[in-house]
């Protein structure tokens, strides 16, 4: 079980839990504003951009090459950017905080 | 080569130099072929503008047959964002459950009909009807209106003889003018009325602006959806195992749709006008010339996609640009995705197999590149599940 905290761009805090799936799916299931996930999670639409809280970045890990290529063209890209459709839910990311970019 | 395959005509040029050139009414276009160049150029809206003369970013150019600016498609920032913000919520409606249910009814009826026929021509007898009926949902107008559009036949814009036909385009433009006038007289809860009532920068949208949005909605979503639907039927005819898989694992449907859109790339490319002398792919691009973002080529770029010429039905990493990229990405994508997701679901549930009886490929002519984008016609036979 992983508990994830989303903080939206209008400062709403949503805490959600799941055992499996992707963080994007979890966000959609919990109506997190700013996570659209238009492409269903194949790293094509970049509508699930988050900034991982600085202290949690090691837990979540860096993006792969294809995801990084997408991210570096995004507005508000920084060194903690991830597309959350590419973050799998597991115990390893329990307790992380994600700031929704859009 | 399978009958349903769409070969990649760009591979050699993409790897060797990264671009190609196509002549078009004395306004040639440099086609960008690599995924990274296409993405980067799509993002740089200052140097590569969409807000040139109406019709110029389209290839073949529609400058000689259209004065109305398509909105928000042919508008640059910052106004682009204002228009887009007005439209986003409306064009997200396809995610709502009742919208999906209505789509399911439309598509189930067509598939049931197809299962009862000895054979059918998919473009006219299935895809055009599906696209037209589904469009009534997007516009929120009565279902019966789709009969008018089906009556227009396959090519409102594209005639058999030439790529551009002003008389045919006028059918659509006159129709939209009349519908706008009707909505002014009798406002309702359809897209025309909603737009007429919308405000931008503290004023109401003009009739010309409403027309610009409506032309985009009709034109952008017609051939593209029809080709995507028809190509999907052709693909499943030669890959019944994919239908079985979708039936057993419906959770892969969204991934399958993205993969089909990548492989089909229903819109081959879209232009931009260069605003200042620059370089693309180490090739000089002069101010006031045209480049195009070749989605179809970018979607087969082997530097990103493994086995790019194969449909991998559950492809997980799929950063395709089949719906474009950047601020101008397809406004109708939510609708198109829902149409395809529902179509795949209904086919997987009801259809055992499909036979292709006869086909005539639709080959686009882009100078040095000849690209199959779909079919002029394709006759098939549907077989129901036991």
Query: C-alpha Rg of chain B, in Å?
Result: 20 Å
- Biggest beta-sheet profile of chain B: 5 strands, mixed
Q: Determine the CATH superfamily of chain B.
A: Cytochrome P450
**Backbone shape of chain B:** globular
- Per CATH, the architecture of chain A is Roll
Structural domains of chain B: how many? 1
**Assigned CATH class of chain B:** Mainly Alpha
As an assembly, this protein is: heterodimer
The helix content of chain B, as a percent range, equals 40-55%
The CATH class label of chain A is Alpha Beta
Stretches with pLDDT under 50, minimum 5 residues of chain A: none
CATH fold node name of chain A:
Ubiquitin-like (UB roll)
Distance between the termini of chain B: 31 Å
Keywords (chain A): 2Fe-2S, Iron, Iron-sulfur, Metal-binding
Cofactor (chain A): [2Fe-2S] cluster
InterPro entries (chain A): 2Fe-2S_ferredoxin-like_sf (IPR036010), 2Fe-2S_ferredoxin-type (IPR001041), Adrenodoxin-like (IPR001055), Beta-grasp_dom_sf (IPR012675)
GO molecular function (chain A): 2 iron, 2 sulfur cluster binding; electron transfer activity; metal ion binding
């Amino acid at each position: 079980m992983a508990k994830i905290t989303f903080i939206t761009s209008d400062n709403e805090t949503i805490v959600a839990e799941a055992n499996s799936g992707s963080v994007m799916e979890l966000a959609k299931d919990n109506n997190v504003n700013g996570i659209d996930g238009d492409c269903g999670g194949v790293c094509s639409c970049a509508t699930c951009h988050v900034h991982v809280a600085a202290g949690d970045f090691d837990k979540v890990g860096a993006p792969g090459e294809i995801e990084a290529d997408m991210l570096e063209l995004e507005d508000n890209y920084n060194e903690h950017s991830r597309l959350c459709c590419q973050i799998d839910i597991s115990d390893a990311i329990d307790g992380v905080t994600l700031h929704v970019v859009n | 080569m399978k009958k349903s395959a769409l070969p990649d005509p760009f591979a050699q040029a993409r790897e060797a130099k990264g671009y190609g050139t196509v002549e078009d009414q004395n306004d040639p276009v440099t086609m960008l072929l690599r995924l990274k160049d296409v993405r980067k150029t799509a993002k740089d809206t200052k140097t590569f503008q969409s807000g040139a003369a109406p019709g110029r970013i389209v290839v073949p150019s529609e400058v000689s047959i259209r004065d109305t600016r398509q909105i928000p498609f042919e508008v640059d920032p910052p106004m682009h964002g204002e228009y887009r913000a007005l439209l986003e919520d409306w064009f997200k409606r396809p995610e709502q459950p009742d919208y999906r249910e209505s789509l399911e009814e439309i598509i189930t009826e067509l598939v049931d009909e197809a299962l009862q026929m000895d054979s059918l021509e998919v473009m006219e007898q299935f895809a055009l009807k599906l696209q037209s009926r589904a469009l009534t949902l997007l516009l929120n107008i009565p279902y019966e209106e789709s009969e008018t559009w089906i009556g227009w036949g396959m090519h409102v814009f594209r005639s058999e003889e030439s790529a551009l036909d002003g008389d045919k385009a006028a059918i659509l433009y006159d129709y939209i003018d009349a519908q706008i006038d009707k909505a002014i007289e009798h406002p309702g809860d359809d897209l025309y009325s909603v737009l007429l009532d919308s405000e931008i920068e503290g004023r109401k949208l003009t009739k010309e602006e409403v027309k610009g949005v409506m032309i985009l909605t009709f034109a952008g979503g017609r051939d593209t959806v029809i080709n995507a639907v028809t190509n999907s039927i052709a693909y499943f005819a030669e890959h019944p195992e994919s239908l079985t898989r979708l039936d057993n694992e419906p959770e892969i449907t969204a991934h399958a749709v993205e993969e089909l859109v990548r492989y089909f790339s229903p819109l081959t490319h879209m232009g931009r006008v260069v605003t200042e002398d620059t370089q693309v792919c180490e090739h000089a691009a002069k101010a006031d010339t045209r480049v195009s973002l070749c989605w179809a080529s970018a979607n087969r770029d082997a530097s990103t996609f493994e086995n790019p010429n194969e449909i991998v039905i559950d492809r997980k990493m799929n950063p395709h640009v089949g719906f474009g990229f950047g601020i101008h990405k397809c406004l109708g994508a939510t609708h198109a995705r829902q149409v395809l997701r529902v179509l795949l679901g209904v086919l997987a549930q009801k259809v055992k197999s499909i036979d292709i009886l006869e086909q005539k490929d639709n080959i686009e002519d882009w100078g040095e590149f000849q690209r199959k984008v779909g079919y002029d016609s394709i006759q098939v036979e549907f077989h129901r599940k036991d």
